[in-house]
Fold this protein.
Amino acid sequence: MIQPSKSMRNYLHFLSNCQSIETRWEAHVARMDDYGFDRLIYGFTRYSSSSSLGDPEGFILLTNHDKAYTDVFVGEQHYAQAPMVN
């Protein structure tokens, strides 16, 4: 993988031109590690409301956490009360 430049503009240009989500996510994880963030969770849903995030089958979830952690965090719906969601 080509490492993105340290300048933000070049980095964003690099991300916008990635040909796969895997390449984009790998680059983003590496960049955030440069800032000291060694664990990331990205979630997206189109079906959220004021009282629900919708059906978990409709979520997009990217993370570099261990599978054991995400199985519990997502499987037991701990995300529903997580500070980053509220």
The radius of gyration is 15 Å.
